[in-house]
Structure formats: C-alpha cells, structure tokens
Amino acid sequence: MSRVNGLHKTYEIRCPVHGFISLNEWERCIVDAPAFQRLRRIRQLAWTDQVYPGAMHTRFEHSLGVLQTVSMLYSAIASRSSDVLKEDIGYTQDGLKRDQQLIRIAALLHDVGHSPFSHASEELFPENDHGLKFKHEQYSAAIVRTELRDVIENHPLNTANYGFRVEDVAALLEGSTKAKQRLFWRDLIDGQMDADRMDYLLRDSYHAGVQYGRFDLNRVSNTILAIRGTRGRGPRLGFSEGGWHAAEGLVLARYFMFTQVYFHKTRVAYDIHLKGALSEILPRGKFPRPIDAEIGDFLAWDDWKVLGELSAGRGGEHGKRLINRDHYRLAYHSPEISSPDDLVFLELIKEKLGNLVVSIEEASKNWYKTGATDIPIMSDVDPTLVQPLSKFSNMVRSMKANNQVLLYVRPEDSERANKIIRQEVENERTRQGTLEFDPGAS
Amino acid sequence: MSERDKERLSLIPVLAESHPSHHIGRTALMKYMYFLQTLRGVQLGYNFSMYSYGPFDADVLSDLSTAEAMNIVCSTQVSFAGGYGYRIQQAAGAPRIKQDANGFLSQHKADIDWLLKEFGGLNSGELELASTIIYVDREFNDLQVHSEPAFLVGVVNEIKPRFSRECVETSFNSLFEKGLLVSV
Lengths: 442, 184
Known about the structure:
A: Alpha-Beta Plaits; B: 184 residues; mainly alpha; 4 strands
C-alpha cells in the first residue's frame, strides 16, 4: 500500500473531559511511537489514588487533552485577534494556519519527558552544567530530537505541507530563542493560562471525583484573546471583559485543587516515600540526563518498572511503606497563610520534636503551587484600556500565596509527637494569655 | 525555610528599597533576578527560559507572592495609558528577613549596586529587550556559536518585532560596550 493512502483521514478518540479528540494521520503516528505510548505507563497524579482512589489516569490521556485544548484556544485567539497577530507579530492567514499544526504537536509532546509518577520524582533529576536541576521540558525536547525525529520530520503530511524540523518543536518546549516569534504561543503550552493547566484541572477533578477543579472552558475559549503590548512590548494573552468571571473561575479552580488534592497531606506523604524509594532504586540515586547518550536509558524508566522494583523488595524503608500503605503522618502544620510568627512557632515545634520529624514539606516548593498571577482583561468599550483581573474580582484581589509548612513523623511516633505538640500549644496559649493579662503591660 | 529561600526573599525588598524610586515593578524584579544570576553569578537557583516577553521563571513570582504573604513587601497596582503595572515596596516584615540573610546581602552588596547602576534607569520594555539580548547571547555561547553582531541583532528582532532594528542595535551596543556579551 502507498504511504500516502489514508493520509487525510482523521481519527477520533473518546475522552471523558472533551468528548472526542481528533487527530490527523501525522499526529496518530506520533501517538503510536513507543516514546509516546510510554505515557500510558506514567500516572498523572502519582500516588494520589491513596486518597482519591479514582485518580489512576495517565499522562497519555492528559497529553491528548492538551492537544485538544490548545487547538481550541489557538483557533479562538487566531480568529478573535488576527489583527494583533498580523500587525504585531507579522503573521499572515496562512502562517497562522501553518503554525497551528506546530503548536498542536508541541502540546501533544509537552509531557513526553516525564519521569515515573510525574512531578513527584522530578527532584531526582540530575543537574546541568550551571548547577540547576534539569526540567521535564528539557527531557521532552531531548526525546523529540532523538526518538521522535523520524516520525516528526519524515512523515508525508509534514514533508508535503509544513517542513517542520524537530528543532521547531523542541524550541517551543524548552523555551529556546530558536522559536523566535512563535514564542508568543509558548504561554499556551507552558504559561499562566496554558492548555496544560486547563486540561489537568478538569481531568484531575473528573478522575479524583471532586468538583474543585471545574471551570467554564467554553467561556474561557470564547473570551480569550491577544492583547496589544505597550512600551515596545509584544502582545500577551488575556481576556475580553465579558470573560473575567471565567478567568476568575480558572484561578479559583487552581487554588481549590491545590489545597484539596495536590497538597493533600496524605498525597504529600506518598511523594516523600516515592522520592525516598527511587533514590535507592535509581543508579547513583538520579535519573539519566537528557542527552543523546542517556535518553534511551531514561525512557526505560516508567511506573511499571518502578512498581516491579518495589514488588521485588527494593526501595528500602520507603519502598516498604509504599507497598504496605504505612505512610508518614502529618504531625503539625502552619496555617495556609503563615505569618512570620506562625513560622517561628513551627520552628519551636520542630525543635521540640527533634529527630521525630522525618520530613518537612513546604507548599511554596510544590510543583502545583500558585504564584502571583494576574490576568489582563481588555475593556469591551475601549480596547486600549487593559486592567488586571484583580481589579474586577474581589476574590482574586484577596488571594495570598500559600506558604504552609507540614511536619511529618513516622506512624509509630505519631502518638508521642502529638503529646509533645499538645504540650507546646498549651504553653503557647499560656504565654499569650500571660501577655494579654499581664498587669505590668497595661 | 532554607537559606536559599531566605536569600531570595531578602533580595526583593532590598532591590525595591535600593532602587532610586524606592519601588520596582514585576518586570523589573524578574529581569533584575535574571541579570544578577546570569551576569554577576549570584547563585539564586532560578531556571529561566525564554518567552516572548524575555527570560522568565515562575518561581520569581512565587517568591514575590510569599514575600507579600509574609509582609516583607507590599504591592500596589498602578495604571498607565494602555496598561497597568505593580509597585513593589519594602514592608514591615523586611528587616527580619534582611537580618536572616545578612551575610548573603553583605556579600552581594556590590552586585546589587552594580545592577541598579547599569539597569535601574531602564523601563520595563527596555529591560525586556536587554534581557532578551543577553539570553540569546548566552544561548549562542552554550551552543559554542560565535555570532556576528548583525546576526544576533536579527535573531532578537525576530523574537521582538515590535522593537525597531535601530532600537535593538542601540541596546545591543550598550551591552557590548559594557562587556556583558560573550558570544560576539
């Protein structure tokens, strides 16, 4: 059969979040590649199923979902803001259509470099020449340049219509200047309002069986646009004024999912055990590097391999705890918005607990943390009037960063730790009471 | 909180307070951190990558949020023609974190003074442009590419087409004369 037979066929895959996801023949060949199929063996939320048993979904379905979401957002922006994209970036209608295909592929492959159990194991990535830990995007780019080179560059749909090179995809994934003016679209792949986040909030909610991550994706798509920059700066993503409630819903969904799912105390405990077990299982305690000579070894690591190692009794104390569901217990935590005094008291508790504390986890270090985000909103009446979402939304204006700190102890030490903590809390109350009622202070 | 965290947090009020206007914006904060790490070798642990608005690491904004929550700095929103920005200023909790990171701040006082002398007068658009030129230059250097000035300027112009070629050249020449570019 000729290689071009069936070249213009589209394939539809059922998705619990988006209904159907459509792929062309080129995208289907990429999905069929072993490096992409590996994502079926990488769970999206690591060991979150220990808290929410339904959360067993994988990076495979999420990656398809990001392709679908990015395509929807790209079409919306290209249609609503074609004047800005043409005048400020230099796009033509054909150029926009062509780049949509590239952005779809970059979105599809954005997570192909994930390590087993996703973000939970990223702390075991090695460091680059500048002493900074590699990021999964750099692994994704390395896999695109090596394992996926042939299927990307030599597929007839590409050679006949686009002529994209793997560097075009890799540059968008890792944020290289080689992406040139296409860097504008990087915000849709890895940014404050990216398709990745939009898909994982909805998908993680669906599988965990919670409603916290739900927001109005259709309205988001209906109101997202490119806003002209000022002071020489290029355009940026934002919303039309009518969409600010949808933008607010997205911000709140992220906040709720962080507190209820991603930073759930038991989920965090399993991240500790996974890291501990992997540091014993991996050669020299680190994953291979994202370089040509080592990327094949990296791809051999998936959840199945790690589970096999754990099942064979490897992974030390942490491995045993994972197998037996005998996780560390949260002994004490500071408030979600901790003041300096709260953190001083936490230090006091930590000191009193001494070596009972086996792990300290900070919300500000979590991959899913929420930072200072403010989404530009363009006035419906005057397009030159742009204001931040916090100007419209009381809730967004009041939001502060979660800087909670969690102290964990072994389950067998839990009772002893609780006793010490109760005593310290009591002492603190007395101290505060003394201050409040000290006659000498009045 | 690790020593690295304290150092990063302590820099935010110091940069704001040391700036001649006693406040900085979010773009300035992002680019100052990039310059300190890239041009002066201050070990901050940020992992910048390229966006259309220049080098960016979401951890810088996350640190800003933490600093705001701990009342180390306060941010107010300001509007200007066609847009808005933020005014980050030192707040009541700053002395404590500065005390905690005193050694680090003393060690890098000259770096901070240099940064503000060289870049403190640039507006957000100019900072985006200068940081993009330096990012392109460092990327070429990492790839062991020796580039001609005109080529580097051309690449920057493709990333930031809203700036005129003359504007990119002026910024490039200024950085080159200061010896801040390594690939040309």
